[in-house]
Design brief:
alpha/beta; six-stranded mixed sheet; five-stranded mixed sheet; 28 strands; 22% strand
Length: 621
């Protein structure tokens, strides 16, 4: 939710609303008079000059249900407004104050746990401003120990978090143990110093300075990655209370955190079991189902002949949990399966209940939480930061991990924070980059998969979407494509107005497309008199295709047709030159060049290239 205190806030509020950041807005027109709306009163009973409830009353009504409050105005005014509403660090929403010009975003309340620091960064990125982070962790480039796990798909458990943060602020590095979950965070620049604590002795640390990452309950401050799989078998129409009691008993007796559960697993015949479905929905746990043949192939410590006669497999609970834990996204019976952490346990019905159930717990070698993860395809444009869209900036600010080709990531490096991980890939390994990004998103992370230009134009969006669609719907993380400025658009802007009529793009790379297909498209472009943008025009291993493309295009247009060569667009080495199709200097073209060829109506005049909106004889109304 958001509130503005003067008409000057309207521009910022509209930008935030259009970006989808705001669920409810208190527009300045209803509260432009700070004195009339009783902003300084604590009882919230004031009204504004129109008879509507004042800002204090409106905030009080929204406070308990809000996850965040964005206020466009002065910090002092906002402080006085929210002071009577404060309930405690665990309950209060994030509060971010933005100046009416959108230059600064200040996390006033709930910087770590409520997410005000991160929200400030996203707002600043969207508005082209600056996030003013005042907490010691953010200001010093350190991980906020009480909040960073949320970015890695974890749930925060018990412990003296306040004591831990005080010790960290005093420079005392916590003793650290990691017993499960994703360990890539240890490569963060912001984690420098913490990783050394992995080898420290627990005896050297005070109770306040123990930080444990794993599925177990215990002393110290605990982060719980989603790495436990609960395999469940049950009789038909078993009561929900039986399953709930079984889960609670097994986890509590084993010292395991419910927050560390990745999901439930069972046999496909239980896909319509009411109690099992109700348990999954109530806890927010995905349910993975396997066939009897898949389960029968798994070696388990406690097989049952009775279960084998009834279900076609000697194990449901242990085998299902092992299969789910082995490869959460693509579980099969191939390869070694993890051993049960807790062997199958039986629970029977009590008074007024029916049925019976078994439960086994397996610790997965990797975490899994697609319902928490997001995969964002980001088009970084040509590389200049001022040509990056606000939407892309905000997405990059929100991501925990950036995945992309190294030179493209280098161009965005000034925007990356010490608490964001960079994963470089090689030029020809696009599938591997997409697979890694999707896997990380499936583990509960927000991942930015970065392409140059526009991700949907010869970028990574298509391959990433294909891989995403191969997953069953319940196993897909969030997916969103963010457009960027394509080389075609920037080349056209540099040259003048060459795209005023129909145009097409053709890649001359035959690495993924047969040359016969490419040649057919070139002939069609020539016949249709399209303006043509040639991507991937020439490389050391492909030095003849551009010449052949020129021959084909000359069949449909004169040699005097203007051509733009645009190389290294948006970078310091940028070069843009005008030529004709007949004297095209092919040897000056490489893979960093875009070739833009006009149609039969295009012309060059006074150093600019223009393609008229209509053909000779046509007139615009």
């Amino acid at each position: 939710m958001a509130v503005g205190f003067s008409p000057a806030a309207l521009t910022v509020l509209h930008q935030l609303e259009q970006a989808g950041l705001l669920a409810a807005v208190r527009w300045p027109s209803a509260c432009s008079n700070a004195k009339a709306d009783g902003a300084g009163r604590a009882d919230g009973s004031s009204v504004d000059g129109t008879g509507e409830p004042g800002t204090a009353t409106w905030l009080a009504e929204q406070w308990s249900s809000a996850s965040a409050v964005v206020a466009v105005g002065a910090c002092g005014l906002v402080t006085r407004l929210i002071a009577p509403l404060l309930g405690g660090k665990e309950q209060d929403p994030a509060v971010v104050v933005v100046d009416p010009q959108g230059q600064f975003a200040v996390p006033l309340l709930g910087g770590h746990l409520a997410g005000a620091d991160q929200l400030s960064r996203e707002i600043a990125a969207l508005l082209g401003g600056q996030a003013v982070i005042g907490g010691s962790s953010g200001a010093e480039g350190r991980l906020p120990l009480d909040a960073f796990g949320l970015d890695w798909g974890w749930r925060r458990g018990g412990g003296d978090w306040r004591g831990l943060m005080l010790d960290a602020a005093a420079g005392r590095t916590p003793h650290l143990q990691q017993q499960g979950g994703l360990a890539l965070w240890q490569g963060l620049e912001a984690a420098a110093g913490m990783v050394d604590a992995l080898a420290a002795s627990p005896a050297e640390a005070s109770p306040h300075t123990a930080l444990v990452i794993g599925p177990w309950l215990g002393e110290g401050c605990r982060w719980h990655p989603p790495c436990l799989w609960l395999g469940i078998g049950c009789e038909r129409n078993t009561s929900l209370a039986v399953l709930e009691r079984l889960v609670h008993r097994v986890l509590s007796r084993s010292g395991l955190a419910e927050d560390a559960v990745a999901g439930l697993a069972s046999i496909d015949r239980k896909g319509d079991e009411p109690a099992l479905l109700a348990l999954a929905e109530a806890r927010g746990w995905p349910l993975k189902l396997f066939t009897a043949a898949q389960l029968a192939a798994v070696t388990v410590p406690n097989p049952s002949e009775a279960v084998a006669r009834e279900m076609g497999t000697a194990s449901v609970a242990e085998a299902a949990a092992s299969l789910a834990a082995a490869a959460p996204a693509t579980a099969t019976s191939n390869g070694p399966q993890p051993e049960p952490l807790v062997p199958k346990t039986i629970e029977t019905a009590g008074a007024g209940e029916q049925g019976a159930a078994t439960l086994a717990v397996v610790l997965a070698p990797r975490q899994w939480a697609p319902q928490r993860g997001e995969l964002h395809l980001v088009g970084s444009g040509p590389g200049r930061l001022d040509l990056l869209s606000g939407d892309s900036r905000r997405t990059l600010a929100a991501a925990s991990v950036w995945v992309g080709y190294g030179p493209y990531l280098d161009l965005l490096e000034p925007l990356r924070r010490p608490d964001q991980l960079r994963r470089d890939g090689k030029l020809t390994e696009e599938r591997a980059r997409c697979a890694e990004a999707l896997q990380l998103a499936s583990q509960g992370l927000k991942v930015a998969l970065i392409s140059s230009g526009d991700s949907g134009i010869y970028g990574m969006a298509g391959l990433a979407l294909e891989l995403w669609l191969e997953l069953p719907p319940p196993e897909r993380p969030g997916f969103e494509v963010h457009p960027g400025l394509s080389a075609l658009q920037l080349a056209a802007a540099r040259a003048g107005a060459p795209l005023m009529h129909d145009f097409c793009t053709i890649s001359l790379s035959d690495r993924l497309t047969p040359w016969e297909v490419i040649e057919r498209r070139l002939r069609s472009a020539a016949d249709g008199d399209f303006v043509v943008a040639l991507y991937n025009p020439r490389s050391l291993g492909r030095d003849w295709q551009l010449g052949r493309a020129r021959e084909l295009l000359l069949l449909g247009r004169p040699a005097s047709t203007p051509v733009v060569l645009a190389r290294q667009l948006g970078r310091r080495e940028e070069q843009v030159s005008l030529h004709t199709l007949g004297d095209l200097p092919i040897n000056q073209v490489d893979m960093l060049t875009l070739v833009l060829i006009g149609n039969s109506s295009s012309r060059i005049q006074d150093g600019w290239m223009v393609t008229p909106r209509g053909y000779p004889g046509a007139a615009l109304a």
